[in-house]
């Protein structure tokens, strides 16, 4: 009898510990769900195709989505505050066109790249000023910036501008063999992973990051606590614009040219990847690591459909349907966790 009682006590204590863990780490549940989805997709693709989990495909997963990963980090900062930035794709195109135009005139990349970053940050600052000082909704403010950036890209040139600068092309063409079996990294991939690392550290180990979570959780409470709400939200949009400018550099290196229509729909891809990674659109909950996983899920979907040889229209339809399923599943997980 005493043995059964001791066993029941241990079982009850274990159950209470698991319950406390779920309550304290509920925000990580969507991230784990996205990770499970990614693993299932990779294993399923390997079983179906037989040659999916190869060094070439896995290395290309980061290579092909480095620019999207950078955009997702900036978007995570914005969404955590409860905002949105629809201008990132157009800003990426505009900064790419501007940089390519400057390089074509003979300006060195050591000057062109900082100019691209500064212009991206300035576009983000403009969105933040509209939102915070003119009380414009983030959706409308960033939509206006999207149209403005796209128009500016066409003002630079109506046609594609080829990039021949060795430093820019080096970012994409260099293959760094870091592990046996054929795995490789490129400078663009290293830049993207560095941005993820810096973003994660800033969010979790700085006052700025903690203020972002506080604003997203309850902006009014954050104001009553004396937190710098206006300054933080303004800087968040600057970070998003800066990431868009850096993505312009990476995407220009990736394609070897710039075109005014680059990045159309990229803002929606970015938002989808961030949400898949577990960041709530209402703000206050999410992680940069989750956004990185969301980008890899999105990239894996595109790669699988490419392996299947599906038509481009079906590719977009399939991606949209799968993203919708992933978002609904994660929302159900969060709702169930909250009830518990």
TrEMBL record:
Major subcellular location class: membrane
InterPro entries the record matches:
ABC_transp_permease
> Its topology with respect to the membrane?
Multi-pass membrane protein
Q: Name one Pfam family in it.
A: BPD_transp_2
Q: Mind listing the UniProt keywords for this protein, alphabetically?
A: Cell membrane, Membrane, Transmembrane, Transmembrane helix
Question: What domain of life is recorded for the organism?
Answer: Bacteria
Q: Is Iron one of the keywords?
A: no
Q: Which residues cross the membrane?
A: 28-49, 61-80, 86-103, 110-133, 139-161, 182-203, 234-259, 271-301, 313-334
State where the protein is found: Cell membrane
Protein's name in the database: ABC transporter permease
């Amino acid at each position: 009898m005493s043995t059964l009682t001791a066993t029941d006590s241990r079982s009850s204590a274990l159950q209470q510990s698991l319950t406390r863990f779920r309550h304290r780490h509920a925000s990580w549940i969507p991230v784990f769900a996205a990770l499970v989805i990614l693993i299932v997709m990779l294993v399923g693709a390997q079983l179906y195709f037989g040659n999916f989990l190869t060094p070439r495909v896995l290395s290309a997963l980061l290579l092909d989505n480095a620019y999207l990963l950078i955009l997702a980090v900036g978007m995570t900062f914005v969404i955590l505050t409860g905002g949105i930035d629809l201008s990132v794709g157009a800003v990426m195109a505009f900064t790419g066109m501007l940089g390519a135009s400057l390089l074509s005139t003979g300006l060195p990349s050591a000057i062109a790249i900082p100019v691209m970053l500064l212009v991206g940050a300035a576009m983000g600052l403009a969105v933040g000023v509209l939102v915070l000082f003119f009380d414009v909704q983030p959706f409308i403010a960033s939509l206006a910036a999207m149209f403005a950036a796209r128009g500016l890209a066409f003002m630079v040139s109506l046609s594609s501008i080829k990039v021949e600068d060795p430093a820019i092309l080096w970012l994409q063409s260099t293959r760094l063999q870091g592990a046996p079996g054929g795995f490789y990294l490129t400078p663009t991939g290293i830049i993207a992973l560095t941005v993820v690392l810096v973003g994660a550290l800033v969010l979790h180990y700085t006052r700025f990051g903690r203020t972002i979570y506080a604003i997203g959780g309850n902006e009014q409470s954050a104001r009553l606590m004396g937190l710098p709400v206006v300054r933080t939200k303004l800087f968040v949009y600057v970070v998003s614009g800066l990431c868009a400018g850096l993505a312009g550099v990476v995407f220009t290196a990736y394609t070897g040219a710039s075109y005014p229509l680059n990045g159309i729909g990229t803002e929606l891809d970015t938002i989808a990847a961030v949400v898949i990674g577990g960041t709530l659109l209402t703000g206050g909950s999410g992680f940069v690591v989750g956004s990185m996983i969301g980008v890899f899920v999105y990239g894996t979907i595109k790669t699988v459909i490419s392996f299947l040889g599906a038509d481009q229209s079906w590719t977009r339809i399939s991606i949209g349907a799968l993203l919708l399923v992933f978002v609904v599943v994660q929302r159900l997980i969060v709702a169930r966790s909250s009830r518990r």
